[in-house]
Design a protein that fits this description.
The protein is elongated and about 105 Å long. It has 2 domains: 200 residues, no CATH class; 224 residues, no CATH class. The protein is of the alpha+beta class.
Length: 476
Amino acid sequence: MRPRASAGTIAVAGVLSGIACVLLALFAASSWPRLLAPLLGLDRQGSLAAELPPGSAPLTLDGPPLARFGRLEFYLPPFAPERSTLAAEDLGGAVFSGEATTSGVSNYLLTLDEAALNRFVDQWVTDDDSGPGLYREVWIDLQPGSVILFADVNLGLRWQRAGLLLVQDGTGLRPARLVLGNESYALPDSGLILGWANNVATNAERALEALVVTGPLPGEARVSQVRYHPDRVEIHAQATYPVPPSPDTGWQPLEPGLELRQMDVVAQFGTERVTIVRLDPSLVRFRVGYDPGSQRRLSTWATRSGALLAINGGFFTPENDGIGMVVSDGQRWGTSLGGYAGMFAVTAAGEVSVRWLTTWPYHPNEALAEALQSFPVLVKPGGHMGFPAGTDEGLPDRRTVIAQDRVGRILIIVAPSGFLSLHEMAMFLAESDLALDIALNLDGGASTGIWLSADEREVKIDSFTPIPSVILVETR
């Protein structure tokens, strides 16, 4: 009589039988993709061609490309964390071109055919030293508006060739379908397969975001657009970089009656970037703002007034009273200064002038609508330098000047960096091509500021301290 099997023996046999069935199923499924898909819970969608998006227009550079060049530097964390040099001939079907017609912007267009792209992936992305893993033999199959990432996947008993369709979505890639054979399968709504697919898409997107290209053009370019085509991938990378200002911009018309110019002035303590505004009194209106009881920074004066242009006014006492005479909207404060000073004045009839009080003193019977006095006069009438060396200690500081040229235009000159002494400012003004007849120094240092907003062009340099008086310019 045969011995009866114990309950434990029967249980072990059942488990071994179950494992054998699973292994047999996996082996059969891995030999035939249509058996593998149901085992993994995948829904067959049909022909892969029906799932591909429509093609996209090719990328082009905005301007004429530079001559093609053969080498680029790049790094691609974490695969190439150090800068590496890539030569077009190393990849075969790769074309690199560049364009830099817009100041401050460099553009590159990289075009790689499928073989060149896979050579790049094989050289820089695939880790040959990782040993046996979950996948091997990675290959990118380019498609319209998408790519298929193929690899041999380790199923345990054998390797199965499988693919993941990544469709372009904006600037990134999203997983769309699994590919087994020539057929596509829907991704499950959750689980390990979906997590793996999302991880692949995220890594591909991060690789493009991390790509930095430097070449013969200025700046480091980062990927801004990618287009996938059946025979190639196009990568547009763009760099922006600061453009050194021109030593002299020349006169730039911004508004009727208003021109802007910026230029470098070399001084003992450094190179000063001077901003100059030239105004036609027949096309703009001047006002003097004065409020000793509620002084405020220049930006606040400009914002509250809505003026086209605002600059700081003259000197003031610790009690915030203007030094010398101030006239605002016909109302007068203070006492006129002596002949060493000057005055900016607007008559009730609208006549505008910058005056040296020695040759054109203020008369109490004058009908002034706006006026502001200050000192010293840096350029005396006739364009003569009015502040010789040794007149003061020659210390540099921020400067604000109001002047008038020989045809009656008003010029505002601001030097905000603080490299010019009064004598150096006077020398520059007298010797420049500004054709000045007279120039008057206004309060400088912490008071200096200019606030200009015209024709989508802004120059905004605020005063460091609250000020009680300003000169405002408005459109007529």
